[in-house]
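Quick start: what a row looks like.
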Amino acid sequence: MKALLVLEDGTFFEGRSFGSREERTGEVVFNTSMTGYQEILTDPSYRGQIVTMTYPHIGNYGLNETDIESRKPWVEAFIAKEFSRVFSNVRGTSTIEDYLIKNNISGIEGVDTRAITRHIRTKGAMKGGIFVGEELNIKTLIKRVKLSPDLVGRDLVKEVTCQEPYHWNDAGKYKVICYDFGIKYNQLRDLANLGCSLKIVPAQTQASEILSENPDGVFLSNGPGDPEAVTYAAENIKKLIGKVPVFGICLGHQLLGLALGGKTYKLKFGHHGANQPVKDLTTGKIEITTQNHGFAVDMNSLDKNKVEVTHINLNDQTVEGIKHKTLPVFSVQYHPEAGPGPHDSKYLFGRFVEMMERGK
């Protein structure tokens, strides 16, 4: 059946409906990863976004119950040049269409994903919508897209965080409390593999409650949306700084930047993919990283007497990592746990464990 991707600036692309046929709106972004569509679908950081895959053929290895990154898929809708209706993979259990229908996620295929990507790179990420039907009025659809919720100023963390605390790997040496702003399972796996006993808590958990448990460290997860809208999280993180070792990833990094007195801003089209080059300024080494974010920490807003920039993005010189000069606190903008993805940044989890060991 005919489907349209309509952008708020009036641009539209005609294709075919795939998956659910429900109307969906959100911020349209593009992801340059060649694999990992199941991990992308289940990454809570994509809440509120419609994802365009630049790789043209999506779904050829199916989906399974092992490689998910959270309890459910979170993307608002999915766009590809071509979705495969069959798969070849001994681990596969379902087609991507079955998965999208089961989880009520709309998709569109048969569109020029190169043109969509180029348009977003030129004009910037913008609101869009996927609409299904033979008789569609473009002017009406543009109005509906414009009236849909903005990403800026919107707290999406409250929509993806867990409702109750839970545990992961109770037998670990290091007691770590993880703030769930939209946490990915591979972050928990990597920490557990290094001997961490993990308690995952909702995003609204008070700092006093965390400190009362006397943890060896606090982990700040990734998550969706505008960090400046998650004011309660930044306030709680501020109360943890200097009391316990802290490590943040992605949204956790941005919230730590806010807690340290900095500011964040929205990028033109964000960083979404598995091939972003990052330089570690402390070693001079270059890492190829997986990223998924639309906001960044403002380098000039940080107090340089207290905070040091440790990593920068070599494509646009944005901040990719920070640390406190005297306190056991650091964070990175990218995803060292990425799976599938490059493993260049796995050392960061070990750095967190070493920090906790020194604090014992």
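That is the whole record. The chain has ten helices and 19 strands. The domain at 157-359 is CATH 3.40.50.880 (Rossmann fold).
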